[in-house]
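To whoever is on call:

I kicked off a structure prediction for a single chain this morning and the downstream step that reads the tokens threw a length-mismatch warning. I double-checked the sequence; it's 182 residues and nothing unusual in it as far as I can see. Pasting both halves so you can look.
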Amino acid sequence: MIELGRLIPDHIQANILAWVLAEADCWDDWGMPATKWFRPWWSGLDPLPAFYEAKAIVAERCNFERFQDEDRRRYSQLSCTREGGGVAEHDHIDLSVHDPAYYLGKADCRINTLIQAPIDGADLMVDNVSFDPPPEGHAWTFDAFKKHSVYPVIGDRPRVVVSFGFHMPKADYREFCERVSQ
């Protein structure tokens, strides 16, 4: 995991947070009842212009325009995790979508932003390495084709994350990580 600082302007983060806190109880559970997910490509909805404005800003600031999927909804999601909820270990490899050879040379570059931090908990785990969450409002990156999870949230303040994925050659992702680590 590499912290990237603030990528999404505060006013856009505030719009996303307000919408998530108003709507999250209607979303699907994902493995744990206290964790709700909104994935626009599953629902076919475009409910929140600020969400896609944020994706365009992240793509531009990371120089990822060439890796954006033709459907802006794909590989994009919001999550709201309340007390006791977390994210079970998983990866984003889906052999029903791509054959195994696809995954050998690609990375699922996740650019996540912690829109709202919980009171405590919600440490990140990527490839069996634990990381403290970044500061509220900051983004981080990791390769989501690797196993990852989030420890349970502690306290009554939900963890809200916006997550954008960009599939790209591993060499491009490695170059990006080296550039932002300097």
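Update from on-call: the warning came from a stale cache, not from the record. Cleared it. Sanity check on the structure: Helices lie at 10-23, 40-43, 49-62, 100-104, 170-181.
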